[in-house]
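User: My collaborator sent over this chain with a note saying "see what the structure looks like." That's all I know about it. Can you take a look?
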Amino acid sequence: MTHVQQGQEKEPVTRKGYALRDVARSFVQVLGEASPIASGKLLHYTADLIGSGGFDLWVTLCWDYAVDHIGLASPRIFVYLKKKLGELGRHHADLPFSTFVHSPTIQQATFEVVLILQGCPKRLKTKTPPTHAETHQNDGWFESTATSPLRDVVRRAWSRDHDQEVLVRATNEMMVAITDGALEKALLWLKWVQEEDGLVRRLYKSGLSTLERGPADSKQRTAVAYFICAVAAEAYTEFAAKGLLRMHEEVQTLLDLYRSGDKHLSAAKRQDLLILILQILTEVPRWKVPAAPSLVRDPIVLERAVAQAETFYREILALPMPTKPLPAKIGPLKKKIIPTNQDKLQHQLDSLDDAILSFYKL
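Assistant: Without extra context I'll predict from the sequence alone. Here is the result:
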């Protein structure tokens, strides 16, 4: 961890004197580790980021981690984050900064968020396979490939006055692949129809749909992704009626997040959420129990760790605020493994590790 003296920094630093990019990278790293030491570091970084005025960045890092590293392993995390981070965000907007960061309730809530994230099972997000340029604006290829009978879930979402047949038939092929359990093929059609819509928009200033299904404040209210969301919602309703899926709250939350335009979710992360929705529709009906697992394995351990919030925050809040405000966003974080024999933070956390270790009864 890089320490920077106040007044000598070339980039923003935290109260503890860490370069912002370093502490953000380390925060994400320890979220993926399962040990009492990692938990102690995680709580320290959380208090430092939020106590230094980096609440919005911290929220973004939490969302990014859930999308990139948890996903289908624990879909309920998105329901939890939407509720908990939403509550914290409202408090952050309404309260003076000093009141916000000194509130024991808010301190404990931030620790609860990161410890639950850390405790979730992990699964990397699914990547979309590449498409081929020769398949676009190619009527011959499309007519010979998109030949499946139209499914009811697509027909119910279709607006004949606004949605072009290409959009409907391509999305129908996506739904056929989902029903067949062919996720890669479904994602291929998802990417194809989005790319085709982009090409049509550049050529004709209007895409494959003219119906405004997106949020009113969005510049892309007629984007084909919102038609796909409508089809996915119809598909979930049909699958749930057959007992193939029991994730109503999880799927609805993901659809709401995609449509919301939350500033903490980039366009790329929202696309990943759309992919996750299709992944749920494809894979979960084949699970033995087609429902999301519980979010917290041991509430007592969580409660004990959360109760230590004041100790961690007190150490940070006793230090002066950074001279430069922390930004709400930073660029991509390259992976950086910090050797344990060079980790300066470990020395600073020795006194706190004993407390964390006692919670885990090691």
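A starting point for your reply to your collaborator: The chain has two domains: 20-121+294-359, 133-286.
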